[in-house]
Specification:
six-stranded parallel β-sheet, binds alpha-D-galactopyranose, 17 helices, ten-stranded mixed β-sheet, 26 strands, globular, alpha/beta
């Protein structure tokens, strides 16, 4: 991997730096403050295309030269961005065929970013030229430490429906299927007599009178991902001609559904991610932890970079909540605990104008006499003390199966219930494991499962035969598996596996499902002997080798199995036929967490016991992170070592203050 880690030592601290929004006297103040806060890495030039190429083929690098020189003189390293996510106004005007067209056929307007078609040859040529000019000029600049290609591929322009995209889609289909008969078979086009006589007859999935071919929709998502990936590769290859420094692009895990990041991760030298708290959530730090664990997993367990997060409120949620005292610190350190070698923000200085002027920053509008600035300076000091954690790994004994294709397929229209949402079950299981103090990885169901005692499949509607065999081998070989309802239903083309549900998983689970009985909105069912409550789903499970652990006490499947267990070879496969809640039920254990605790025990998964479910515990290398999300202090036993942040010696126990963080090096 060329050049990673990006900095000679310690963790990276800083963020997006957009000095073009400010007069030069502010830049000098910026670097002074960066030194005060301990900033050592900034991302520069993300949206600079219209500034460095003000007219086609005319370059003006004067300002960028001065910025990079100034940062270098202050000892701040630069993550130099290619500006291709925001094409200039002249480009749109000159190449109208490159404009993004949405699903309704509307050409999207200018005055914004991301408005281009990823398959446009004009965009490709213009992007290649500006990246070449940039790479040629700055490859040898002493401030430069890494390259940041583009910005958040596929966020605002994941799918383009213009004629150029349609043509590129047909070419992609020819490549994939060779002849149109193979496409017809894969998509099941005898249905409604939708058979194609040639690839030229295929149209991308735009708004249709009534239900669309599922295979068409899935392949269009795959094609669109490939189109963005091709844009990334093109820029990376240009940079490679001039520079050996690491090249990355910032992912949006898990909030950019259209991008299959298992595929993207193989293309970058270091995985980088942007994460923003969803402030409408009751416990947003649990979704943060999930994002960080998924990012680490996508990175193959190697350290990754938190490329953007926020010091306080964002500007794009319905209600943009400020962070509570200590929350930014807990957030940043949770990312580091879960494998990030950096804590970077969007952005350094809050903008006075533009669409993001109400977004928080490291230097807020309030200036340096502010809580945010004091917290920024304190976080810089924390991160310096934590430098020794760099490069070390997080180990997990439990993995959650995550497949973007299953995410896409599950959420196409006309499923048995609109309440079947990929993230709903994924987050429920993640939350239950988080509250059970169990660190998890994520895996693609076809990946190597040997590191894990327990694999959990919360939402694997689409599951290939190969993945199903992989899971079967895992259980037979002594691994454990827990599957939630409506998994293993269809293959990669959204065609139902033959025979009773859940086709691909029938054998390993030792059950079959006769009929689905989705519940009404707000309807619940109860289990017995556990009095846990289920929502969303009930179904008629038949035992074909498994035994019932819990049954439905009421509802459409009263008396029939709700949770089953199948001992197979040296392992066990569990099945859960309803949506149990991750939060505490009426009696201890009567909830998803209680069920999972029993399965974790059976699988021999070690974890701390007797701690409040508001305490986040993660071990990274020899660093033990204790993050207290509650308003009361908590004492943790069984920890001995040196407090990295506070310098204290801990012998056998540690008290973590309310809202505080203790990191102990053992
Ligand atoms: C209508 C149509 C059928 C079928 C059913 C499904 O009646 O005529 O082709 O789509 O709806 O309920
Ligand atoms: C994304 C983008 C940034 C900025 C932030 C705001 O992460 O990459 O340019 O728009 O969102 O939260």
């Amino acid at each position: 991997m060329p050049g990673y880690p990006v900095l000679p030592e310690g963790l990276a601290y800083g963020g997006d730096y957009n000095p073009e929004q400010w007069p030069e006297e502010v830049w000098r103040e910026d670097v002074r403050l960066m030194r005060e806060a301990g900033v050592n890495l900034v991302t520069v030039g993300v949206f600079n295309w219209g500034l460095i190429e003000p007219a086609e083929g005319e370059y003006d690098f004067g300002r960028l030269d001065r910025i990079l020189d100034l940062l270098h003189s202050a000892g701040v390293s630069v993550d130099l961005a290619t500006p291709t996510s925001s094409p200039p106004a002249w480009f749109r005007r000159r190449y109208p065929g490159s404009r993004l067209v949405d699903r309704d056929g509307r050409v999207l307007g200018g005055g914004s970013r991301h408005g281009f078609c990823p398959s446009s040859p004009d965009y490709a040529a213009a992007a290649e030229r500006v990246v070449e000019a940039l790479a040629a000029r700055y490859a040898g600049h002493p401030a430069l430490t890494m390259w940041h290609v583009h910005n958040e591929y596929g966020w605002a322009n994941a799918h383009c429906h213009c004629p150029t995209s349609a043509e590129a889609f047909r070419a992609w289909l020819r490549d994939r299927y060779g002849e149109v008969g193979a496409l017809n078979a894969a998509w099941g086009t005898t249905f409604w007599g939708l058979t194609y006589g040639s690839f030229d007859e295929v149209e991308p999935p735009v708004v249709a009178p009534v239900g669309l071919l599922n295979g068409l929709q899935l392949d269009f998502m795959r094609f669109s991902g490939d189109a963005h990936l091709a844009c990334f590769r093109r820029e990376r290859e240009v940079i490679r001609r001039f520079s050996d420094l690491p090249v990355t692009t910032n992912f949006m895990i898990p909030n950019c559904k259209p991008m299959d990041y298992w595929r993207w991760a193989a293309e970058v030298d270091v995985v980088a991610n942007d994460h923003y708290l969803d402030s409408a959530r009751a416990d947003p730090h649990i979704e943060l932890a999930m994002a960080a664990d998924l990012t680490r997993s996508v990175a193959g367990g190697r350290p990754w970079m938190l490329m953007e997060h926020s010091t306080g409120a964002v500007n794009w949620q319905p209600r943009n909540l400020a962070k509570r005292p200590g929350e930014m610190r807990r957030n940043s350190l949770a990312h580091v605990a879960r494998g990030s070698d950096s804590a970077l923000f969007f952005q350094w200085r809050a903008s006075r104008y533009g669409a993001e002027k109400f977004h928080s920053a490291m230097v807020p509008h309030a200036g340096t006499d502010s809580g945010i600035w004091r917290d920024v300076v304190a976080l810089g000091a924390d991160l310096r003390r934590l430098g020794g954690v760099r490069g070390s790994a997080v180990r997990a004994e439990v993995a959650l199966g995550w497949d973007w294709e299953s995410y896409w397929a599950l959420e196409l229209e006309w499923r048995p219930s609109v309440d079947l949402r990929f993230r709903e079950r994924m987050e429920a299981y993640y939350e239950a494991l988080w509250r059970e103090h169990t660190t998890v990885d994520f895996v693609h169901p076809a990946a190597d499962l040997s590191p894990y005692k327990l694999v959990v499949l919360p939402s694997s509607y689409l599951l290939t035969e190969a993945s199903a065999k992989n899971l079967h081998r895992h259980v037979e070989g002594g691994g454990h598996l827990l599957v939630s309802y409506f998994s293993g239903i269809v293959d990669e083309n959204d065609i139902i596996h033959a025979g009773p549900y859940p086709g691909a998983l029938r054998e390993v689970l030792g059950v079959s499902v006769e009929e689905f009985h989705p519940l009404r909105a707000d309807e619940t069912v109860t289990l017995r002997p556990s009095a846990a409550t289920g929502r969303i789903w009930s179904e008629r499970v038949r035992l074909t080798g498994a035994r019932a652990v819990h049954r439905f006490a009421d509802g459409p499947d009263a008396g029939h199995p709700a949770v089953t267990r199948h001992d197979l070879g040296a392992g066990t496969a569990w099945y859960v036929a309803t949506a149990l809640d991750p939060r505490p039920g009426p009696e201890p254990g009567d909830d998803l967490r209680g069920l999972l605790a029993a399965v974790l025990d059976h699988a021999g998964v070690a974890r701390p016991r007797g701690l409040p479910d508001t305490l986040e515990i993660v071990r990274r290398g020899d660093h033990h992170f204790l993050i207290n999300h509650a308003d009361e202090p908590v004492t943790v036993d069984g920890v001995t070592g040196t407090g990295v942040l506070d310098g204290a010696e801990y012998a056998g126990s540690a008290t973590v203050p309310a809202g505080g963080v203790v990191v102990i090096r053992t």
